[in-house]
Design brief:
single chain; 2 helices; 0% strand; mainly alpha
Length: 76
């Protein structure tokens, strides 16, 4: 059976999708292992922050945010 040859753009999109799937799977495993082995002495809030940090989420890093007075370009 002949397979249709992918264009360069289609091949690139396919590569990106495969990479995204691999990264997502890795993140899920990392979180599952952490959740199974998280120390009981850590509060749940700290455990949640640790899991978000594993994913590269900055939402718990208050230092990256600032208020309106500090940023003249912020629009309301």
């Amino acid at each position: 059976m002949d397979k249709k040859k992918l264009t360069a753009e289609q091949e690139h999109k396919k590569d990106i999708e495969e990479t995204t799937d691999l990264i997502t799977a890795e993140d899920l495993v990392e979180q599952a292992v952490y959740a199974a082995n998280a120390p009981d002495c850590c509060p749940e809030e700290e455990q949640a922050e640790n899991m978000l940090e594993m994913l590269g989420a900055n939402i718990v890093d208050e230092d990256i945010y600032h208020d309106e007075e500090e940023c003249l370009t912020m629009k309301m």
